[in-house]
Write a structure and sequence with these properties.
Blueprint (H helix, E strand, L loop, with lengths): L16 H13 L5 E6 L8 E5 L1 E2 L5 H4 L2 E6 L8 E8 L6 E8 L7 E12 L16 E8 L5 E4 L5 E4 L13 E6 L11 E6 L5 E4 L6 E9 L4 E14 L5 E6 L6 E6 L33 E4 L9
Antiparallel strand pairs: 1-15, 2-6, 3-10, 4-5, 5-15, 6-14, 7-12, 7-13, 7-15, 8-11, 8-14, 9-10, 16-17, 16-18
């Protein structure tokens, strides 16, 4: 289910009327510009489209690569709910498998900060050996955003191979448009069962510029050095987008429902109670967003500036 920060918001009494006005203005006028988007692929595909790149266009044998991408039930040990499945055999020593999605309603031609958290399932344990690279650590997960549609294009300078029309880097190296967020290796549990994994850009927000129509394309995928077959299930994608000059902070309910916990700001820097003003009670700071239920209250606040040496 797609959710953002513009729903169900109740503001406490803040220290100044100016801060109240700024907060309401931010949420009312920038509802689609700042916030949290969550794509739960058990509910639907949310318009995500798959594709493949970094393989030859000439003398291409579909059976050799065996590209597959659809929405299907995840393995029974993970509950069997639908997920975005993608698989392919890396015969080119450099296969890129990806999903993309267009967001709209953002401010036009504006630099934004994005943080993505990718939940997926993999059966490839760390520490294994494979041709070209390990089936776990050699398959690199990347995430990015660009103002144009990510597509494969024929590159005449690489013997007419299908390449991406964006800079994703190569294998374990990030590019200008996509950043490395980890690999598909799971902890070695001694089985070939799929395991649920989470990778994120927390603390390393990336930047992108929106298109003139206020759109932005999201792209997530794997860049493989492992010369074998990879099959993955993407289960959920969460994105935080911030266009504000000052940091956006999450305040989540505490465990006793009487406190609030400061869990994240989009600059990747930490804040403390000292930065929030005298009217705020102490908060717990963590660099990972709180895992919350659909009915939990959540709020956005603008505070700042960020200190040079956050504690």
């Amino acid at each position: 289910m797609l959710r953002h920060a513009g729903s169900g918001i109740n503001f406490p009494i803040l220290k100044t009327q100016a801060l109240i006005a700024a907060a309401f203005a931010a949420l009312n006028s920038l509802e689609a510009q700042i916030g949290r988007w969550e794509f739960d692929f058990a509910a639907s595909d949310h318009g995500f489209v798959s594709d493949f790149a970094d393989y030859p266009s000439r003398d291409f044998d579909p059976a050799l690569y065996d590209f597959v991408a659809d929405r299907r039930a995840r393995p029974a040990n993970l509950g069997g709910a639908p997920a975005l499945f993608i698989g392919g055999s890396n015969r080119s020593d450099d296969l890129f498998m990806f999903w993309k999605k267009r967001l709209t309603g953002l401010p036009p031609i504006t630099a934004v900060r994005l943080t993505m958290e990718i939940q997926f399932a993999s059966k490839y344990a760390v520490g294994l050996i494979g041709i070209g690279g390990a089936p776990g650590e050699g398959v690199i997960v990347k995430a990015g955003a660009v103002p144009f549609e990510p597509q494969r294009v024929i590159d005449p300078q690489s013997n007419d191979w299908w390449r991406m029309n964006l800079d994703k880097g190569n294998q374990s190296v990030s590019g200008a448009d996509m950043a490395v967020v980890g690999h598909v290796g799971k902890p070695d549990d001694g089985t070939e069962n799929y395991a649920a994994l989470v990778l994120g850009q927390h603390g390393a927000a990336m930047t992108a510029t929106t298109a003139p129509d206020g759109s932005l394309w999201l792209v997530i995928g794997t860049d493989s050095a492992f010369e074998g077959r990879s099959e993955l299930y993407y289960t959920r994608l969460t994105i935080w987008i911030d266009t504000a000059q000052k940091p956006v902070l999450w305040l989540e309910p505490g465990t006793n429902n009487s406190s609030r916990t400061l869990v994240w700001n989009m600059t990747g820097q930490l804040e403390t109670t000292d930065n929030l003003g005298n009217g705020w009670s102490p908060v717990t700071v963590t660099k990972r967003p709180h895992v919350h239920s659909a009915n939990e209250t959540r709020r956005f606040y603008r505070v700042g500036p960020v200190p040079n040496t956050p504690r």
